[in-house]
Amino acid sequence: MIEFVNVSKRFPDGTVAVEDFSLVMPSRKTTVLVGSSGSGKTTLLRMINRMVDPSSGRIEIDGEDTSSLEPVALRRRIGYVMQNSGLLPHFKVIDNVATVPVLNGVPRKQAREQALTLLDTVGLDRSLADRYPSQLSGGQQQRVGVARGLAANPNILLMDEPFGAVDPIVRAELQVELIRLQRELDKTVVFVTHDIDEAFLLGDQVVILETGGRVAQVGSPTEILSDPANDFVANFIGAEKGKRALSIRKTPRGEILVDTEGRAAGVLVPGPDGSPA
Ligand SMILES: Nc1ncnc2c1ncn2[C@@H]1O[C@H](COP(=O)(O)OP(=O)(O)OP(=O)(O)O)[C@@H](O)[C@H]1O
């Protein structure tokens, strides 16, 4: 569990990126921080692994105050995946993945073997292991970025807009892949995005942020969709504009859900007690 307790961050130039932020991010769940540009998402994420230190307040990981931990050691046991993959251009794919375990003291041969297994995990063919990042597609690079983030077998995986720079089709593939991975690996994931659809798709807990890291609402996607806390949230999630309104259309083969433009959105199936799901 990651806990923020009254955390603020003021940068040396006086910018207050985060003000009095408190939140529990449960273990083995995905928490998504979503908000517009400048709302403090990246600053919040980077405070978890001490790439940025809070000006006040504290962050605990499983009850341990991170300010008492050595930053480099902390960073090595927390996976970090960023936009544009953050791969080292002059290292082959396999060495990009194996680097952190080697720094952690794993013998190189063993680290490279584990790296190959991780390529399997993220759905990449092992034949790509000897390529350089520039010889991969954007989506493949992001998968290597995820493999790299997982390489030290961290309990926590921080992901900063990891799918922001790839085209929508690849992005959808990567999102599905992350859901599969999360079921398999059971990590505590903190994911930053400005895309509310991505937040609802991936998040167990979604945190909608306003400027200064102010929490507009926290909840499951269902809770937020069914009961937006205020106009800001309603506007942000598109509920106000009826963008997410679905209605039932009866067809000879059953009932389907359609969106406001008449596009089919899904099939209505009965719930366990026979009521509509
Ligand atoms: N090193 C810094 N020095 C001064 N101000 C900073 C620094 N890093 C970030 N900020 C400011 O802090 C605020 C929050 O930035 P942050 O990068 O956390 O936002 P964000 O929500 O991740 O934005 P984006 O979606 O654009 O990445 C912004 O106003 C930003 O300009």
From TrEMBL:
SMART domains: AAA. Its EC number is 7.6.2.9. It comes from the Bacteria. Residues 2-237 form the ABC transporter domain. Keywords: ATP-binding, Nucleotide-binding, Transport. InterPro entries: AAA+_ATPase, ABC_transporter-like_ATP-bd, ABC_transporter-like_CS, P-loop_NTPase. GO terms for molecular function: ABC-type quaternary ammonium compound transporting activity; ATP binding; ATP hydrolysis activity. Transmembrane segments: none annotated. It holds the Pfam family ABC_tran. Belongs to the ABC transporter superfamily. PANTHER family: OSMOPROTECTANT IMPORT ATP-BINDING PROTEIN OSMV. This is ABC-type quaternary amine transporter.
